[in-house]
Amino acid sequence: MHKITKKLFCYFTALLFFFAATAFTGFQASLSYYTYLNHERELKTRAETIGSRLETFLADNAPKQGRGAYLRFVDDIAMAEAYIVDADGEAFSYGRNAVSLHTPTGEVKQFAAQVFASGSYRHFRRNNGQETVFYAGIPVKVAGEAVAAVILSDPLQPEKNGLSAAVGILGICMALALVLSAVLSVCLSRRFVLPIQRIAGTAKELAGGNYLVSTDVQDETELGELAAEMDELAKKLEAARQESSRLEQMQKDYISNISHELRTPVTVIRSLLEAVCDGVVTGEKAVEYERQVLMESISLQRLINDMLELSRLQNKDFPIEKTNIDLLYVLEDAIRAVRVLAAKKSMLILFDKPDGEWLMQGDYGRLRQMFVAALDNAIKYSAAGEKILVTAWKDAGKAAIAVQDHGRGIPQEEIPHMFERFYRSRHSREKGSGLGLTIIKSIGERHNIDVSLQSAVHKGTTITFSLQIEQA
After folding, report:
1. How far apart are CA 431 and CA 424, in angstroms?
2. What DSSP string runs through 25-62?
């Protein structure tokens, strides 16, 4: 038996025993009280009946016959020991044969004196060892004066025997009830403990790292609520474990990607410099190698800057300077900055600026960087001579800006990964760090701008910026 089962069993049993003892004591006291009360009432009624009959016999005009017979059978009439006592404490008599059969004892004489003194009904009871004796007395009056007293003495033994039997039967029934209740309390305790055991088992499994476990407890009480919370905790821990695994894998991939991205230009630079230093190449070829080293150094510097920039943006504690700006003006500035790049590929950037101002709190430099990166991607991945379409619209405080190209597009299965660090489409032939879209997304998040990407192969790609703006 489990500890909690033992405790519950002891608590239930003690409680049942307390209630049983209280009920037994109350029943015994009540039964004794009403038994004694009824006996006293019956004895009083008998005494009054006999006293009334004697008053009738003692009346002046009463017939003389029947007095002696009545006194001889007064015990049978009273169904108890009957004493007829005069004012001197002796056995009362009137006529030759009308004499009380019982000679008063000292106790009866004392009680009779109290009856004469009070002039009314009196009673008392006396415990004589195992026996309880009831006394009832009533004066017999003639012409308003007490001439005798009727004293009835009756032990309670028959009623007491019945009372003892009733109490004994009650005790046996209560004992059986306690035994059955104890058995029932064990069953109920185990049923109560079972959900707790399941919850405890689930907690152990969770502590051991098994987050797929379930309590399987169906209960409408607080235990059911606790089990449901435990199951919900298991689900959340499993989700957290999966997220932790995903982040850990992302970290590993990030380190692997950094190592790969850094190793490539460093390897190229080292190879070129070794060729120049060892005299393998000279003259114009050496100059060409030096230019290539410069280009790789610039690419390496750009990669390092992008990594540092992304690290700052994704650090929520890194502050950005926000001021009240016009987002449309920032977008125009970004378009002006990339027109030179577009001109090199004979591309046009079309932008129909809407009326009014789009006011918001933001970092001018970061937002310009975000738009420049989006436009640079559109130019880089579009064929020469294509057009870049920039559109802006707003409705009831909600605004959106879209940058659309007509390049090669991105396969649908790759779109969910495009904002991940160092991710590059397998179909891309352009060089890059794979951090551009991640930086765009990070700048947008720091400004509560939702950045989304739609694309179709051979049709082009659209980057959309959605946000709330202040009413001008």
Report:
1. 10
2. HHHHHHHHHHHHHHHHHHHHHHHHHHHHHHHHHHSTTS
DSSP 385: T
Radius of gyration of the chain (CA): 56
| Residue from 259, 4, 3, 46 nearest 134 by CA | 46
Per DSSP, the three-state class of 361 is strand
Query: Where does residue 238 rank: exposed (0-12), middle (13-18), buried (19+ CB within 10 A)?
Result: middle
- 439 and 306 Cβ atoms separated by less than 8 Å: yes
Half-sphere exposure of 141 (CA within 13 A, CB side): 13
Sequence-ordered list of residues with C-beta below 8 angstroms from that of 146, at least 6 positions apart, any chain: 87, 115, 116, 119, 139, 140
Question: Who has greater pLDDT, 148 or 35?
Answer: 148
Cα angle vertex 24, ends 20, 25, to 5°?
A: 120
Region of residue 409 (left: phi > 0; alpha: psi -120 to 50; beta: else): left
User: pLDDT tens digits for 203-249?
Assistant: 888 888 887 888 877 777 777 788 888 888 888 888 888 888 877 77
> What is the rounded (10 degree) CA torsion for 12, 15, 16, 21?
160
Q: Cα separations (Å) of 223 from 4, 197, 198, 460?
A: 15, 11, 11, 57
The amino acid sitting at 390 is V
Beta carbons of 387 and 433 less than 8 angstroms apart? no
Entry pTM: 0.45
The encoded tokens of residue 46 equal: 């008998």
Which tokens go with 85?
């006592």
Full DSSP string of 153-209: EEE-HHHHHHHHHHHHHHHHHHHHHHHHHHHHHHHHHHHHHHHHHHHHHHHHHHHTT
Could you tell me the pLDDT band of residue 369, with boundaries at 50, 70 and 90? confident
User: In this structure, which amino acid lies at residue 193?
Assistant: V
